[in-house]
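=== Structural record ===
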Amino acid sequence: MLGAIGRQKFTKALVLSSGVSVEEVDVSHAASASGSRYSPLRLVRLALHVVAGFWPQPVQWIGVTLGLVCSLAAAALGVYGVVYWIANSNFPGPLFAGAGIVLVLGIQGFVLALIGESLGRVQRDVEGRPLYTIEEEL
């Protein structure tokens, strides 16, 4: 386990990801007289680092969700534009331009999901954690 710690600061998450059993000890803390050094922005950055450092799926999920929602919205705008064009004999150019922009945004969402998958694989390779550990040889 000592060789697997790497550069991450969050030892508890690293230990839990290795599959060993963990015991927690209750500790009482006194409040700091000078106040906390952690601003709300620093706490948010720390939380994002914890989530992104051990779990690449949020980037993938955001990308897929963005891609699906925007693609469906672009399809709906396109269908509405065609119906409007047929019913009123008037070409809705700005509507089709907006549908095109939303479609491009959807494609970017899918690309973001691919980048998230790629980053997750690179992270796994760089960490070099073993797939399993042998606790006891018989």
Q: What stands out?
A: Residues 93-127 form the longest helix (35 residues). The chain has two domains: 1-19+39-55, 57-130. Residues 14 and 31 are 28 Å apart (CA to CA).
